[in-house]
Amino acid sequence: MKNITVSVTDDAYLDARIWAARRETSLSNIVQYFITTLPRSERAERKFPKRHSGANVQHFTSTAENSAHKPAYAAQSSAHDPTF
User: Fold this and answer.
1) pLDDT 10s digits, 29-52
2) pTM above 0.85?
3) Percent with pLDDT over 90 in the chain
4) Using an 8 Å Cβ cutoff, are 30 and 81 in contact?
5) Do residues 77 and 40 lie in contact, with contact meaning Cβ atoms separated by under 8 Å?
């Protein structure tokens, strides 16, 4: 599992912490869910269209291809819907 650092505004951080707390989950679980579902999100694809063929990212592989690790968010309710 990789650790990442993300910069967000204080307000965005507070709003996300409150949102997560109300659902008895963590920001880490929420971020992992978004990152995991992002490649299959049509809304994200519209917001961030491809800019090139992907030739520069051939060396990347997904975690799913490399291990049988079940994402931490999977234990959470499936009622959460990505908001991309």
Assistant:
1) 999 999 999 989 999 999 988 887
2) no
3) 45
4) no
5) no
**What residue numbers bound the domain in which 34 lies?**
9-46+80-84
d(CA 63, CA 69): 8
- Supply the DSSP string of the chain, one letter for each residue: ---------HHHHHHHHHHHHHTT--HHHHHHHHHHHGGG-HHHHHHS---S-SGGGTT---HHHH--PPPGGGGS-TT-----
Residue 36 lies in a domain: yes
> Half-sphere exposure (CA, 13 Å, Cβ side) for 27?
12
| pLDDT mean values, one per 10 residues, the chain (84 residues) | 93 97 96 92 89 66 54 46 47
